[in-house]
Each structure stands twice: as structure tokens, then as C-alpha cells.
Design brief:
Layout (H helix, E strand, L loop, with lengths): L6 H15 L4 E8 L4 E9 L13 E3 L5 H10 L8 E4 L11 H9 L2 E11 L2 E11 L7 H31 L10 H18 L3 E8 L2 H8 L1 H19 L6 E6 L2 E7 L3 H16 L7 E7 L10 H17 L6 E2 L10 H7 L15
Parallel strand pairs: 10-11
Antiparallel strand pairs: 1-2, 1-6, 2-3, 4-5, 5-6, 7-9, 7-10, 8-9
Helix pairs in contact: 1-4, 6-7, 7-8, 9-10
């Protein structure tokens, strides 16, 4: 679990470990989704029964069918006791007379002889459950097994807590706090990976660089709170347009600069979305629209061996769009071949433009 990067990986490691430690033929981890009132199965491992998948998309059970996860914890554990595991057997009630018809029916339906259920408690609240089963004919779990399962559930809870903390740290490291979009660090990492994919397999990689016009005027005349609202609204427009292209990353590079990174879609589809972005940004009642530049390996822009070159091409195209006050995107490579296109020449110049045309190139 310590090596897991996602909740799915963490749950899989916990289920595998518990199944082996308890000598089970099957194990599962479920999460209690309180807002839905259901137990959602995150992972199944071992010998899967009919209809079971390792990572199910929609295997959920109403929590009222399994009142122990709610009633036991809230009535006994919250009252000062400890969360303990319990045993169900396919051939009859437990020693204390308790009999959960749904669990017993599931055991019989899937050819299992008994199961252990251990509540997973996280941050002082019931989070879900660890479930381990054995085949028909194998020894029924005993009290010692249940006590061991309780310990394993506590270890599972600690692992899940660590996974959640790491996920939150990654989210903060790669997310712009104002807009909720990806940040520059996330773009750099994804773009490096995308260019390597392009070099190896010829996958089309496209970058749309945007400069939100009029932000300084809004900040100076109406205050930074209104300027922030403009950034947030444009961020929503960018995210909406990016969603048209599957797998596209929408990001804020910093200040009034944003981008879309598309890996796979043809360049024409990316340019069409960039045009849609210009139209929607022009409809915002704050600001003065957006200047958009596009660079895609699907257009005649010459070889792209580094992320830096694609960024310079998109940045140069965006500069030309801003200088011309264009209401549509400027696309590198569409004014002729690499030698004739002024965007490509601008991006390939050894130094950024000087004087009134000066612009800071990124990366």
C-alpha cells in the first residue's frame, strides 16, 4: 500500500494482502458512499464469482442490507467499544445468533462457504469494509481470524489515509488554486511525455496557447476581485471547450495565460475547438476576448523533437494573434511551409522580438 499512487491501487494491495494472510480464496474492499447510502466495491481479488470483476464500475449494494457497517459502528464502537470483525457462514447463523440473509445468500450463490467482514474506520468514521471469503468445505473462520481481520482493517485504513494525503499533495502541486485547472508544472510534465510519444509513435500533439485580453484594465478599473472572477469564468470556458477533445488538458500557465494540450486528435479538430474558444471568450461580459495561437505536429511546422519547440511555435502564433487583434486563432504552419510561415520563422529566431514586438518566450 505504501507504493500505491491511487485509491484503486491501495485497495487492491490491501485486499491481496488480507486474502493471503487469512487464507481466503477471495477478498474485496468496499467504500461506504454516504451520500448515496451504498457500499461501492472498489476491488475484487482472488477467485471471482459470476458477474464479479476485479475493478467493477457499478457494483454497489444498499447499505441498509448490511446494517452492521452502520448500526454496529454507531451503536457500539461510537459508544466506546472497538470495531470488530464478524463471521458469516453459508450453512447457518453465527454463534451469537445473528444472520444476515443478504450475505449468506451471496455466499451460497457464489459457491463460498464463509466470510469475514471487518469495518474500515478512517478519521474516526466508518469508511467501508474489508471482506474475505473461503471456499465451501474449507474451515470456517474463527474468533482468532476475526481478531486478525480487525487488525488488518486498521492497517488498511492507515494505508488508505496515506494514499489520500499523497493524492491531495499531488493535486495541490499540479493544480492552479484560483481556477482549479492544471498548472504550469502539470503542463510541462504532460507535454514532455506527449512529445516523446510523438517521436516514438507519430502521435499528433497540439498546443493551444491563450492570452486573456483586458485583464489589466479590469484589475485597474474594477479591482482584483473582479479580475479574479474573469479568470475563473474564462477557466470554465476553457475547460468546457477542452472537454470536446477527449483527454485534453486545460491549464492556467500563470497570470492571464492559459493553454490546452491535446494528444491524439487531428490538428483540424484542435483548430476548430480553438475557434470555439475565441467565440465563447468574446461573449464574456468582462475582458476583451482572447488571443489564441495553435501549434500542432499534424501541420507543416517542421520536426518537433522537444516540448520547448512546440511551446515556442504556439507562443509565437499567439503573439501574432494578439498583435493583429485577431478574433480567431492563428495556426502555425498554415501560411505556407516551415520556410514561408512567419510564425515558424518567429519561433525559430535565435532571440525573441525586440522593441514594440518584444515578448517573453516561455520555457
Amino acid at each position: 500500500m505504501a507504493a500505491a499512487h491511487t485509491l484503486r491501487e491501495s485497495a487492491q494491495a490491501a485486499a491481496q494482502g488480507a486474502r493471503q494472510a487469512l487464507g481466503g480464496s477471495f477478498a474485496a474492499i468496499s467504500k461506504w458512499e454516504r451520500e448515496l447510502g451504498k457500499l461501492r466495491v472498489l476491488v475484487n481479488v482472488g477467485e471471482l464469482g459470476q458477474g464479479e470483476r476485479e475493478f467493477p464500475d457499478d457494483e454497489m449494494y444498499p447499505v441498509h442490507q448490511f446494517p452492521e457497517i452502520v448500526g454496529f459502528l454507531h451503536e457500539q464502537w461510537a459508544g466506546g467499544g472497538e470495531p470488530n470483525a464478524w463471521v458469516e457462514a453459508a450453512d447457518g447463523p453465527r454463534e451469537d445468533g445473528f444472520y444476515n440473509h443478504q450475505r449468506v445468500a451471496a455466499l451460497r450463490r457464489r459457491g463460498r462457504g464463509c466470510c469475514l467482514v471487518a469495518p474500515i474506520v478512517l478519521h474516526g468514521r466508518a469508511w467501508g469494509e474489508l471482506y474475505v471469503a473461503r471456499r465451501v468445505g474449507e474451515p470456517v473462520f474463527g474468533r482468532a481470524d476475526a481478531d486478525f481481520a480487525t487488525v488488518l482493517a486498521a492497517v488498511t485504513a492507515a494505508g488508505i489515509a496515506q494514499t489520500e494525503r499523497l493524492a491531495e499533495a499531488r493535486r495541490l502541486a499540479f493544480t492552479d488554486p484560483l481556477t482549479g485547472l492544471a498548472n504550469r508544472r502539470a503542463v510541462d510534465m504532460r507535454l514532455d511525455e506527449a512529445v516523446e510519444l510523438h517521436r516514438r509513435d507519430g502521435v499528433v500533439v497540439s498546443l493551444v496557447v491563450c492570452d486573456l485580453n483586458g485583464l489589466k484594465r479590469v484589475n485597474d478599473s474594477r479591482g482584483h476581485a473582479v479580475g479574479d472572477r474573469l479568470l475563473e469564468r474564462f477557466g470554465s470556458v476553457l475547460s468546457l471547450c477542452g472537454a470536446i477533445l477527449p483527454g485534453t488538458l486545460a491549464a492556467r500557465l500563470g497570470g492571464d495565460e492559459f493553454c490546452l494540450l491535446a494528444v491524439g486528435p487531428p490538428s483540424d479538430a484542435v483548430v476548430k475547438v480553438a475557434g470555439e474558444l475565441c467565440d465563447r471568450a468574446g461573449e464574456l461580459d468582462l475582458g476583451e476576448g482572447v488571443s489564441v495561437g495553435v501549434a500542432s505536429t499534424g501541420d507543416p511546422i517542421g520536426p518537433v523533437h522537444t516540448a520547448r519547440r512546440l511551446f515556442r511555435l504556439a507562443d509565437a502564433a499567439q503573439y501574432r494573434a494578439k498583435a493583429a487583434r485577431a478574433g480567431e486563432p492563428v495556426v502555425a504552419g498554415r501560411e505556407g511551409g516551415p520556410d514561408e510561415d512567419p510564425v515558424v520563422r518567429l519561433a525559430d529566431s535565435p532571440e525573441p522580438p525586440s522593441g514594440p514586438e518584444r515578448r517573453r518566450f516561455r520555457r
